[in-house]
Amino acid sequence: MASCAVGDPSEGVKDGSGGATADSSETPSGDPFAVPRALDLSAVSDPCELLTQQQVQRLGAGRSQADGKSPWGEDQCRWRNQRMNFSIAPDTTQPEGLEFAAFTNTEDGKPTHEVNGYPAVSPKATDLTCTTFVGVSKRDVVSVSYTVGTDGRNDPRYSEPCAMSDRIAGMVLDNLPAE
């Protein structure tokens, strides 16, 4: 099983490259779900615009395509090629925010790690797939689901699914305005 709290060579970078991941730890307030600064996920109405064109090119992801509705009923977007397949789905409808994802996907009901200082949950990862849920405010969550493609399996840039889902989630965080 792939590890979900994998560091990224671009740790600490604030150029839209995705930034760092770290093991989860409680904030000084004692709330593991506290965010450093609430972000406005609803400011971007089209999930295909949650990544910039420059970020998409840096990932080598190709064109985006609308991908119907997420399990919670909001629009989601997918990028797919022979190296990777990933989707981004905002969740502004469930009032429990990341607490719901943690409660339903972890043994202890707490975040599993952080992405750019924001609490995150990566449940049930495999060698080829990983989903990262990141709390961007007390209520809102962004989900990134990543699958390694056939051509990405032997390429270290694409072969670690949780590192990639965290990296992409970090890019999304870099693009969201404060509430």
UniProtKB/TrEMBL annotation:
Origin organism lineage: Bacteria, Bacillati, Actinomycetota, Actinomycetes, Actinopolysporales
Protein's organism: Actinopolyspora mortivallis
Superkingdom field: Bacteria
InterPro entries documented for this protein: DUF3558
Protein name: DUF3558 domain-containing protein
Region (Disordered): 1-38
